[in-house]
Specification:
It is a single chain. By secondary structure, this protein is of the alpha+beta class. The protein is built from nine helices and 21 strands. It has helices at residues 4-9, 18-21, 25-50, 151-157, 171-190, 210-215, 251-263, 344-353, 444-484, and strands at 53-60, 68-77, 85-91, 96-97, 104-109, 115-120, 144-145, 160-166, 199-205, 220-221, 223-228, 243-245, 287-289, 295-305, 309-315, 321-322, 331-338, 367-369, 379-394, 401-417, 424-440. Strands 1, 3, 4, 15, 19, 20 and 21 form a seven-stranded mixed sheet that branches.
Length: 485
């Protein structure tokens, strides 16, 4: 049997000295202060335990999201018609894709950026337009010359008015002219304007009738428009809702199309006009609703390789010419971002963790780039974008888990004059580095250890202070007694 003396010798918890157990006013105050200190420090430690910290590092891009990057955008061009608006992409590897339509949508808008109708569908560009022989001799002019003073009277007189808006300097207008005049003469012979009166072919020189062409939103030459009497009367002279002709431009194709238009109108009741062409034939694809306004909103996305490249929006056509001095590529960027679009909920959750995250993934959103003509004509608007990938990683439960992945970018914009067709160009370059943000969680054992250290430390410090205070008071009493004797 082990004796009690030996047990007492291994007693780690010896009795507290009597002077430390005696109640005193100073000891009570010190105990209250110590308790408050424990509570305060415990609260601070608990808050520190619950607060998630992050560490940021810049590393070589280790992307695992493929070789392509998605660019989402929504832009409005008040002075670029949807009829010719084209979205092109290219890169330093030589890849070029022109007039992307599969993932792009276009909507006609006015100068106040308000939509003027449903989605605008571009004409398919599956084949080159057929023209008449360039060596053909020009026949006598069979089309009527239209001006601002007589346009409305002609359009209200004839059930169908087909107009060629042209420019004398335009190569494509010159190629169309012989075929157009021959077709106009043939239609005039078959459907005499005086005796029949159902159709008339006319022409407008847009270098002379600038306001008339602008009123009908003519931006490319030649533009063939089909006006139907009574189908589109509006307060501003009427005839804004009309069709554009995109078919072949040889004499036979033009004559065939005109005859199909006339066939929908009974000769005896030419004033009682059918509001739309009911005939079903191959020529239907050659006619499309003309733009109701001179602007266009372009939205959608494109996929590009992860190398330096360009996103270009401009006017493009394989059978039209443009007056570059009159083109204005001013635009308003509603949205432009790289990578997958993050939902507002995901973004708000991540911003609670990292408040500054997401501030540069849509840096150009809501900004306007307007050419007020102070820079003159032929102005290209360029944007230089530096794109950096950012990943947020959590290490909860000792395993890595990707919380979010986004691309942020910086942007610098400029307006420059060019001798070519003005464009809106977005130069983008991806950084070879990426920002890695790691979420750090504290272990529960670390929290418990710190709590125990707080309790023990405060208790020890309070004991030391109490001993110093008690001994000081006792010495003062002894000194006072010595003075009395």
């Amino acid at each position: 049997m082990i004796s009690s003396a030996k047990l007492k010798s291994v007693d780690f918890y010896r009795k507290i000295p009597r002077d430390l157990t005696e109640a005193s006013l100073s000891g009570a105050g010190l105990s209250i202060v110590a308790a408050l200190a424990m509570v305060f420090l415990f609260g601070m430690e608990l808050n520190n335990y619950l607060t998630v910290t992050t560490s940021t590092a810049v590393i070589v891009d280790r992307s695992t999201d493929g070789d392509f990057l998605r660019i989402d955008f929504n832009m409005s061009f008040p002075s670029l018609s949807c009829e010719f608006a084209s979205v092109d992409v290219g890169d330093v590897l030589g890849t070029n894709r022109l007039n992307i339509t599969k993932t792009i949508r276009k909507f006609s808008i006015d100068h106040d950026l308000k939509p003027t109708g449903s989605e605008f569908h571009s004409v398919p560009s599956s084949h080159f337009l057929k023209h008449g022989e360039e060596g053909d001799e020009e026949s006598a002019e069979g089309s009527a010359t239209l001006t601002a003073s007589n346009f409305d009277s002609f359009s209200h007189q004839y059930p169908i008015l087909v107009v060629n808006f042209f420019a004398p300097w335009c190569y494509w207008s010159k190629r169309l002219k012989p075929s157009w005049e021959k077709a106009a003469q043939t239609i005039r012979d078959r459907y005499d304007p005086e005796m029949d009166g159902r159709i008339l072919l006319g022409k407008v020189d847009c270098t002379e009738e600038i306001d008339l062409c602008r009123r009908h939103h003519i931006q490319g030459y030649p533009s063939i428009r089909i006006f139907r009497k009574g189908s589109d009367l509006r307060e501003d002279h009427g005839h804004h809702e009309h069709e554009s002709y995109y078919g072949d431009r040889d004499t036979d194709s033009l004559v065939k199309t005109m005859e199909e238009l006339v066939a929908s109108i009974p000769r005896e009741g030419s004033q009682k006009l059918a509001l739309e062409d009911k005939s079903k034939n191959s020529a239907e694809n050659a006619k499309r609703p003309a733009p109701k306004a001179g602007g266009c909103r372009i939205e959608g996305y494109v996929r590009v390789k992860k190398v330096p490249g360009n996103l270009i929006i401009s006017a493009r056509s394989g059978a039209h010419s443009f007056d570059t001095s009159q083109m204005n590529l001013s635009h308003v960027i509603t949205h432009l971002s790289f990578g997958r679009i993050l939902s507002p909920k995901v973004m708000s959750d991540v911003q609670r963790l990292i408040p500054y995250l997401g501030r540069s993934h849509d840096r150009l959103n809501g900004r306007s780039f307007i050419n007020t003509r102070d820079f003159g004509a032929n102005v290209t608007i360029e944007h230089y974008l530096q794109v950096v990938k950012t990943e947020v990683i959590t290490t909860r439960f000792s395993t890595e888990h990707k919380l979010v992945e986004e691309y942020e970018y910086t942007a610098h914009s400029s307006l420059t004059q060019t001798v070519y067709i003005p464009v809106a160009k977005f130069h983008f370059e991806l950084s070879p580095m990426q920002v890695l943000i790691t979420e750090n969680h504290k272990s529960f054992s670390h929290f418990i250890t710190n709590v125990c250290a707080i309790i023990g430390g405060v208790f020890t410090v309070a004991g030391i202070l109490d001993a110093i205070l008690h001994n000081t008071i006792r010495m003062m009493k002894k000194v006072e007694l010595g003075k009395n004797f």
